[in-house]
Amino acid sequence: MNPKTEKSAISSEKSAQLADEAEQLRIEINAAEGGALAPFSPATQEPSQFEEIVDNVTAILGDLPLYVTSFVSEYQRPIVTVGLFLSALVTVRVILAVVDAVNDVPLLAPFFEFVGIGYSAWFVYRYLLRASNRQELVQDISAIKDQVVGHHSS
């Protein structure tokens, strides 16, 4: 006999056997008649330690939005202060990285040094050499300070 035909014969015999067993196990349900249901008996076992932990964690996670909103409302000023401090720190790091990148460009760093020296020389000549110009510088600084602080001079 061919192994394929043998296999199909065995599987057809097995399926016939299974069909006979299913026929024997068939239960007939009559929906017209009402019957009594078995009473539900609650589990008498205590919940395990794992189930208690899971229940506690789900309770905490369920109340998490409430905890977060109360924490933020209570500590709003320190949170804003820390946020501003961290953003200032990141800004300084980015500026230093940009300056370092500019310094790596050939001839650009000496050019900026030359511009800085030229501006410093002009500032000394314009504001610091004569007493009248120093007085003008003090007035300009006080006007800017009053604008920033909020005092208006008449």
From TrEMBL:
Places the protein is found: Membrane
Record has Transmembrane as a keyword: yes
Domain Cyanobacterial aminoacyl-tRNA synthetase CAAD, chain residue ranges per copy: 67-150
Membrane topology of the entry: Multi-pass membrane protein
InterPro entries the record matches: CAAD_dom, CURT1
Transmembrane region(s): 79-99, 105-125
Keywords tagged on the record: Membrane, Transmembrane, Transmembrane helix
Keyword Transmembrane helix (UniProt): yes
Gene Ontology CC: membrane; thylakoid
The protein's name in its UniProt record: Cyanobacterial aminoacyl-tRNA synthetase CAAD domain-containing protein
